[in-house]
């Protein structure tokens, strides 16, 4: 095989649709290793197909991978740049990225972690390369109680270390503050504070790379934020005013606010970021304890470059089961779900408890399209965007069910809590083959964690942080020394 022409080897690599077999081949000889690892277009295509970057947790993992490898990958992909005609991200070796992404899910699933207890709290520092940050923000306490566990890469030859850091508050009298809520992404940390003496609400905003710097302070007076989320550089949500609720979008890097009143009949809404603004879809209905309700969907387009918002337009109607509040859930910028808790077992005559709507591309004033509707027993739901699924938690024994976002059909696969915690799922082909009785040996079962004393659990795609009083424990799945990313058993 060492004497085989290069074009034949390339053809084999291109048509072999088995990543584990390709990885095993890459270990047989230098020639195979070079041919396989340098097929950067192939590995990038497989990576993006199996781990789509429109999923927030997948994006977070890839950003962390890039930071961890930004000082070492330039030479590793030099052969790829020479042999490929297309230009790729010079900071990513897509073969290694693919193997590493498969390996991290394997480590979660098999309970392979390293335990850290960063006991020393230091002032936030910018030294080294920040790999990830996990904030610990206890609600209804003073702002001085905010801590951030950060994983740092200090030297290229040393393993990453964890530090506990206190963000800089810039002279704020923290004893008179009260934490109401907090939000974070891979880049930003936002803490929503009540200034008790003046009864006013304030947002404090940091980049995780600059926790040692004075935060941006946004005084929002008496506007209490009801619900919000970070999408990239946008902080979007709803706040309450005296007579109505208001949808807002705040650009975190440009310090620009955009608002739109939701009206007095508003019940719930979703916000969808567009190329030039924000699309707001609100749900209206008259509540009834039994039977059904007619839900009316209204939509409005807010264009950031315009002083005036467009008028509210009818987007659609749907009849749903009543008895519990109907909630809206943002899936992505082209889909949303309406749903309501439903305790009883549905019958053929039960009205839908779960409806998926699609937004029309390029037509912000066009009606929404009802893609499918189902009457299901439902307690809570969680979208799994990377696998085009929605996870339904039911009341009875908190069992779960998976529905396809394409048509609402039930998918019969095992579901492990590690995937819900990390947000990182296995490729669909491998997932479908897993035994239905597999159990996750999670960190909750570790003797270092006493479930009765846990006050808070926060996770990232590669780690879990537990707070037990003054003890902070990090279970790190990102860099287990006993399993290299090139091990085919991870597949």
From TrEMBL:
Origin species: Thamnocephalis sphaerospora
Name the UniProt record assigns to this protein: F-box domain-containing protein
